[in-house]
Specification:
The chain has 160 residues and is mainly alpha-helical. The chain is 59% helix and 4% strand. The protein has nine helices and two strands, in the order ααβαβαααααα. Strands 1-2 form a two-stranded parallel sheet.
Length: 160
């Protein structure tokens, strides 16, 4: 596969398991797979398909489902209360780090870009979270998401 095609896709194109299989077979170096593994099922399917792979990278999948790493070890999914406590603590820590709520809310917007995939889809609340104009609007959008949207067992949808 030409590198120009991969560069043009910019994380939005399809996965290329054939290219990973070729690299895994031909490389003398250790390889790490990075391809939007979001669920235990996807990670298990990957392990079955590529048993020789020694490592995977889970980035966006771990932000979309903070309990994913625990679930991969056989633990439970995150509860609504656990996710609320997690986002509240993260927001407080961002406020302490930045010394103000504005930048903290902006950082939380980035977290929610992925975390929203753990909730049933609601265009109105997704739009509110993407477009809030200040900490009060962020806090209202987050409260509405936790209050109104059903929690999924796994993150769903494209993480782009």
């Amino acid at each position: 596969m030409p590198l120009a095609r991969v560069a043009k896709e910019k994380y939005r194109g399809p996965l290329h398991p054939d290219a990973f299989a070729l690299a895994l077979r031909e490389s003398r170096n250790p390889l790490c797979y990075n391809g939007d593994l979001r669920t235990v099922g996807e990670a298990a399917a990957f392990a079955r398909h590529f048993p020789a792979a020694e490592a995977v990278m889970i980035g966006r999948g771990g932000v979309a489902d903070p309990a994913l790493f625990r679930k991969l070890r056989g633990g439970p999914a995150a509860s609504r209360a656990e996710l609320q406590a997690f986002t509240a603590e993260l927001y407080r820590e961002y406020q302490a780090f930045y010394g103000q709520t504005g930048p903290a809310a902006q950082r939380m917007r980035e977290i929610w870009f992925y975390l929203i995939h753990l909730f049933e889809e609601d265009k109105r609340l997704q739009k509110q979270m993407r477009r809030f104009r200040g900490p009060a609007e962020y806090e209202a959008a987050e409260a509405a998401i936790f209050q109104e949207l059903p929690l999924r067992p796994d993150a769903a949808g494209e993480l782009i």
